[in-house]
Amino acid sequence: MSLSFDPNTVVLPQGHFIDGRMIAAKGALAMQRPSDGVAFADCPIADADLVDQAVQAGKRALKESGWADIRPRERVRLMHRWADLIEAEAETLARLEAVSSTRPVGQLIQGDIAITSEQIRFFAEFADKDGSDLVPTSRDSLGMIMTEPYGVVGAITPWNFPLSMAGWKLAPALAAGNAVVLKPSELTPFSTVYIAELSVRAGIPAGLINIVLGDGQTTGTAITGHPEIGKISFTGSTAAGMAIMENIARTGIKPMTLELGGKSPQLVFADADIARTAKAVAQGILSNAGQACVAGSRLIVAHAIALPLVDAITAIMADICPGPTWNEATQYSPIISERQINRIDSIVKASVAAGGECLAGGRMLDRGGYFYAPTLIGGVTASSPAITQEIFGPVLTIQTFVEEEEALALADHPTYGLAAGVFTADLSRAIRVTKTLQAGTIWVNRYGRSRDHILPTGGYKSSGIGKDLGREAYLANRKSKSVLIDL
Question: Which residue of 220, 293, 362, 469 has the fewest C-beta atoms within 10 A of its own C-beta?
């Protein structure tokens, strides 16, 4: 059975999802499908009053359901049922996701949707396995470190991987005993609304997951500044993360997890396997057309193998299969919007004007919608716009080195430190380089996340604060208190 579908036949959820029911709302933001540029829906904007309604629903649900205090295994059971429903509704979710996003439907069933259900199951298991600690104190006392949920957690997710990013936020927060008010991107809200509906069908108490639609300026600001939201989790650009930090500081102090921008290097040493490395490097920038915070956008390669490696990457890039996200055969994604594709093109042109050489691509694809050709830019310096700015598109810069120290100096970005890749047959070098690189995630002889959800993700420098995924994400949704009892 083909997964391909007619985008005009998809029935979209209309409005916000608060307290277990849809809240009808008038659309305010026009939405275009990235694959063909057609206007197809309008996204409403939740104001501060509606955000407060969602927060109060979360507080009420926590109190009435006793979610934080019920037998932990019951939280596990309900979250597993939720994951089961997500898998059962995979085709519906794939259509809701593909119609408005950059994610091809053929990659969603076995990729994003399966990963989201895995994440929910992974975090659910922490609920009855991670608790408070007895700690060593004097003989005449008893010391404990107790943990408890924050209450209502605020979350904001980006447009590039709507479902899996929602899983990043919702799963650890619920497993830890919290309620959530989540704002998905105004460009890709529909699949997130639907999995919230599925949570209620699974038996998770209504009001524990509330989805408010809107933009960052109005809805996002209302969430991050709400006095009764105990913690914020955000994935998005560094600029947006800075604005969130400013708003939190202005309206009150609360903890936050920020997974932000990146300008990640891929270091290739002369002993690397060229064919295998070329495939990994290309995938690191072509996946989702480079629209990922961890995109490996800077190739730093040993001079001795630069030419054959670049030739191999160029051949892979020439073999892409662009197409609409609703076509099962599509492997190469569109750019999310006209604004973003114009931004990509302007940075490429500015980089060439600054002395860079466009070796491949460097142009929009004339096929309807917003598609940009995979692009290679050589001859760049540290001041090139293609090096300094997060492009968020399929643009790979090339720099060469002779000595290891030179490679590490090129890799060290003044702003970002989210991820990095290292390709070498020398284990000692791999460990030595890994210890030196300033990045929160480092892959060796591969580029990209696995489905090992135990590995946390998060950045150094302006690439973020705190961690998503892993045990760290669960603990970030609980606060601790120290208790000392004299016996």
Answer: 362
